[in-house]
Sequence to fold (250 residues):
Amino acid sequence: MADINSIAKQFTDFYYQTFDTNRAALQSLYRANSMLTFEGSQFAGVAGITEKLTSLPFEQVQHKVTTLDAQPSSTTGESSLIVSVTGLLVVDGSQNPLQFSQIFQLIPDSGSYYVFNDIFRLNYG
Amino acid sequence: MADINSIAKQFTDFYYQTFDTNRAALQSLYRANSMLTFEGSQFAGVAGITEKLTSLPFEQVQHKVTTLDAQPSSTTGESSLIVSVTGLLVVDGSQNPLQFSQIFQLIPDSGSYYVFNDIFRLNYG
Fold:
């Protein structure tokens, strides 16, 4: 599954770099049928998801990926994949990073991938 | 998505209760095409996954679910779902529970579901 892992790495590198520098640009990764569950609240579609992501109440944010796992997600041989991330979120320069878990399902689309499923949770100890 | 959430709750209640009392019985939840990524190591199929789960080196274990999220995982209307869990793992009565993240993709099969994708990670602070 080397290929899956390298797709997952490329995607998460791009996703978190974009999130941390230009959140509005994340909209290119979602489609009309995309779903986001953010801390238990549900959002759908490009506009709904982008509005949520861009309105999160912090100025500066940095994601540091700790673990990254990927598996093929289709039982019928499509090249979709599930990506599971755990990591640390440094918000507005805080000395206390927050632990997070995030999962994506990526669906192939015109030579690239879009995010169909996105579930984000902070992990409180 | 009330129905999805209730399926996710029923599944995780059963999964963790079985894990904590009779791990070998988890084999009924996997199929020949199932995948498990456990702390970065990959296992596949009923026998491979069951052998890993039953050989984990602890006597007593208790999962406590903190958050549970679910989304439909099929772009074509199948009733498969992604379940994302965060929680605490109490191993051999330790005073220091370990934080974990686990995701499943459940695929419908003969009126029930089986686990196609399973990714487990401990989260170190």
